[in-house]
Amino acid sequence: LDPAFIKGVQMLEQFDFTYDLLIYHHQLTEAIEFVKQVPETRIVVDHVAKPSIRTGEIDAWKKHIATLAGFDNVYCKVSGMVTEAKWPGWKYDDFVPYLDAVFDLFGTDRLMYGSDWPVCLVAASYEEQLSIVFNYLEAFSTSEKKQILGENAKRFYNL
Predict the structure, then answer these.
(1) Is the distance from CB of 38 to CB of 9 less than 8 angstroms?
(2) Which of 102, 144, 145, 156 is most buried, with most CB under 10 Å away?
């Protein structure tokens, strides 16, 4: 929240640059204050703000992630979840409430997949972490899957 830092992030928009916001769930209040000050800069919240999946805590995270989703310039990256789960021993169902929340709050237009490779390897293989997202996306249309698995990232990062 340092004013010099905020000014620097505000300048990104004039160059059509973006900002990846890597935070943990306990930093969401500060993230909201940060985002309020940079309304023209496209921001993506990395790793769904690292909720405490291993403990199942969701209420405070969901409240704050909903506030962030209320800003049109904020996207969310569906990544890094396995490292926040109980490992070893996580199950697909551990992730569903968090996925339900971000899909409901951000929609398929402001979500993008990320693997968090190689960090994810401490908790899952690349294939295992990918299967979580693929399983969740089974009910979605081909168009929505394409958006989440690549098209949104292309648009967000101007690729």
Answers:
(1) yes
(2) 102
Distances (CA, A) of 126 to 91, 97, 147, 149: 15, 21, 20, 15
**Residue 72, CB half-sphere, CA atoms under 13 Å: how many?**
2
Residue 85 token pair: 């789960």
* Adjacent-strand bridge partners of 65: none
CB 22 within 8 A of CB 46: yes
Quote the pLDDT of residue 150. 98
Average pLDDT, the chain: 97
Q: What is the mean pLDDT of residues 115-135?
A: 96
pTM to 2 decimals? 0.95
14, two tokens: 């004039």
Q: Judge contact between 56 and 93, C-beta under 8 A.
A: no
